[in-house]
Amino acid sequence: MLEGRKIEGSGLGGGPRLSGVAGQLPPSPIRKLIPLAEGAERRGKQVIYLNIGQPDIPLPDQILDAFRGRVPSLLAYSHSAGLAGVRQSIARYYRGLGIEVDPESEILITAGASEALWFVLRALLDAGDAVMIPEPLYANYVGIVRMVGGRVVPVPTTIAQNFALPDIEAFLSRWTPEVKAILICNPNNPTGTVYSSEMLADLVAFAREKNLWLVADEVYREFLYGGVKTRSLLTFEGVEDHVVVIDSFSKRMSLCGVRTGLLVTRNRQLYDVLLRMGQARLSPPLLGQYLVQLILEEFSWWIDRVVEEFGRRRQVFLEAVRGLPGVRAPVPQGAFYVFAELPVEDSEVFCRWLLTDFLEVGGVDTTVLLAPGAGFYVSGGRGCDQVRIAFVVGVDRLREALEVLARALELYPHKRESAVS
Amino acid sequence: MLEGRKIEGSGLGGGPRLSGVAGQLPPSPIRKLIPLAEGAERRGKQVIYLNIGQPDIPLPDQILDAFRGRVPSLLAYSHSAGLAGVRQSIARYYRGLGIEVDPESEILITAGASEALWFVLRALLDAGDAVMIPEPLYANYVGIVRMVGGRVVPVPTTIAQNFALPDIEAFLSRWTPEVKAILICNPNNPTGTVYSSEMLADLVAFAREKNLWLVADEVYREFLYGGVKTRSLLTFEGVEDHVVVIDSFSKRMSLCGVRTGLLVTRNRQLYDVLLRMGQARLSPPLLGQYLVQLILEEFSWWIDRVVEEFGRRRQVFLEAVRGLPGVRAPVPQGAFYVFAELPVEDSEVFCRWLLTDFLEVGGVDTTVLLAPGAGFYVSGGRGCDQVRIAFVVGVDRLREALEVLARALELYPHKRESAVS
Asked: Residues with Cβ < 8 Å from B122, sequence gap 6 or more?
């Protein structure tokens, strides 16, 4: 569970008091097992990291060489909304998706999707306002909502229904006048679920009726498997003034480090406010903009290659999961995550065990780092037997990781009662 | 004056309501004349841009070539505090300044100084809290303070005293229990003033007595002229738990676009909170970190070259200012700005005239873009006859700009009464 830790300023030699918001920020659930993994490595063991949503695919030489030639000698601020030419390239990319966007007044380039989401939530929420988010949810949403003094109202999704978008009754029953926005991630991190067009249409109608903002994180847009289809929220009519799309090239181009994200909204009043925020931080990072533009204009096949690689990895997972006794895992339809239920009492204890005792008991040299499920819930007590597994290593390594996991589940002493039998 | 514009959400077809904070964000005072400058250029005129604090100095080929060779093919997230090796290089740079900083627990790399300041203000202020800032002030401070729901309490400095740090009486008389922090910029943007060690010591004592946070923006640290000296707030004893330094390589390495800033604090509790904010946005931009490290480790002379060039420009200004009738301008001691009083009724009107009528009346092909002074004040009515001039073009171009300005002041029809005589 994503608990904040209340931090008290002593005012007595420990410095002045911190803000109330400071005490509400959750530690990263994904990163908290890292020290144990590092400890295992220091003891000569290998750890396969499946805990963080970071593509591991290096850029091909031809892209890298072309980029090196484009690094300019004058590394100046770009426009606060990003370089005009890059926004035009992004508008062409959106046109390729069947979506017309004005690069002058509807696109703002940001330091990753994270900055885009922070700008948007700051523009939409005051302290005490709330945002509804299907749960389990991407943990950093909670931190960013709390940084603007807001509150997350989780709307539960279940593994039994493959974490599908909840029906409108579920939203309606949790709605209060403090709710100003709905935030969805589609395709979904952490569940790998893709929301159906019908469900999205219902959500759009609900947001319109209640006059809510609709924020859609669509950074996994291209990661769709097995013929599944969905729609960008930018394609729905009648809610143009409600919708903001959060986007990023980090995943689809395997460029997490360069921090090139963006937001798209057709609400001009909102855009004007977001641009002022952009001006307050001067400009988004420059070099990532050049690299993204280069790929969009000259190497657009690269996105397909990245997505294909993740498709192969998903296939490996689908085959291997049958060999994992007691594991319940929906077939991932999108993104590059599986949110699985394990036959264990407490998945965080299991994840720690994988990095410690398992290496002795199992007599193995290799283990895996998974993200415990409870870290993706704000509702206490949920997700305790779940984990998020990210397909962020190549197929051979992934196969090895899943074999390790199978062996670990055999040996683990604290299996769930019903699973022990 | 940095007025916010109240933005009302109509709720009637215009989309849902925006946050209250959204309506408090000031437009950028530096950028609002840009459309007029662009208009002049479209009419075939040349505009010399002295309005924005952006070094215009390209990187030498040897640095650029070395950097190109270091761009890795896997552009992954770095640690949320920045790459460990880069933090070590930064700690060595600080050691060269005589300041010991622990790269593991006291340095956090950010997307420019802007992100550093936003993290810090978010960690220190709740809605309704206030921060004292000497005025005139860097306009973006106001936007960032308002984004956390805070309030700026300006502490006036005057051109008659070369914009020196106000004495403690001035701080004391404006202090209220809502004040949680003091924010200074030293060397100062927009005034070019460098604060004396004695005045800083008084400020430090005041902050300690009132148990306030002390935030120092020291991005212009190396830009000191004519033998003037000052101290980093990190060198004062007894306030280690109060001090946060905001820093950036944008200015001293002429790298504004890559967005590599940082913050330094010895307050571990504060650092823990700032790191959580860093985790919520995953990582700072990667490529700028490599470039900064390369320069720190192998081309540290580059900082000296950049500073020397600005010293030459300052000299040009000092010589030219004598030829500007009715202009009162303190001798800049640091940074690369002059905050000057012009013999005009309204400097914003004058700045607009420079970009429009002057080009006809003066029969000239070249004009200058300056930043009107009122944009650097939150106190209404102040700075109306002042401008900020940034030395961000080479010496020949700067000489030309100052000749243009002299001619413009001769021809301008709306000079101040006392100046007309």
From this structure: A19, A21, A22, A147, B148, B277
Q: Quick check: is B65 in a domain?
A: no
Query: In this structure, are B220 and B262 located in the same domain?
Result: yes
Per the structure, the complete domain to which residue B290 belongs is given by 72-298
Please report, as a single letter, which amino acid is at residue A84.
Answer: A
Q: Which of A298, A333, A366 is the C-terminal boundary of a domain?
A: A298
B191: domain CATH number?
Answer: 3.40.640.10
Using CB atoms and an 8 Å cut-off, which of residues 78-97 of chain A contact chain B?
A: 78, 80
Does residue B288 share a domain with residue B152?
yes
Higher pLDDT, B30 or B33: B33
Q: Convert the pLDDT of each residue in B165-184 to its tens digit.
A: 999 999 999 999 999 999 99
> Which token pair is A75?
């590394």
Residue B299 has what pLDDT? 98
Cβ contact (<8 Å) for B118 and A281? yes
The answer to whether position B13 is within a domain reads no
Indicate the pairing of strand A107-110 with strand B151-156: unpaired
Q: Which residue in A113, A80, A60 sits closest to A264, CA to CA?
A: A113
Chain B interface disruption, residue of A179, A259, A305, most B CBs within 10 A:
A259
Residue B284 and residue B316 in one domain: no
pLDDT at residue A2, rounded to an integer? 62
Question: In this complex, which of A31, A279, A285 lies closest to B259 when CB atoms are compared?
Answer: A285
Claim to verify: residue A47 and residue A177 sit in the same structural domain: no
Provide the CA A419 distance to its chain's centre, in angstroms.
31
User: Chain B within 8 Å of A257 (Cβ-Cβ)?
Assistant: yes
Q: Is A312 on the interface with B (CB under 8 A)?
A: no
- Whole-angstrom CA distances from B249 to A279, B296, B376 are 19, 10, 23
Nearest to A287 among B16, B56, B258 (CB): B258
Say whether residue B56 is in contact with chain A using an 8 A CB cutoff: yes
A14/B241 CB distance under 8 A: yes
Judge whether B8 lies within some domain: no
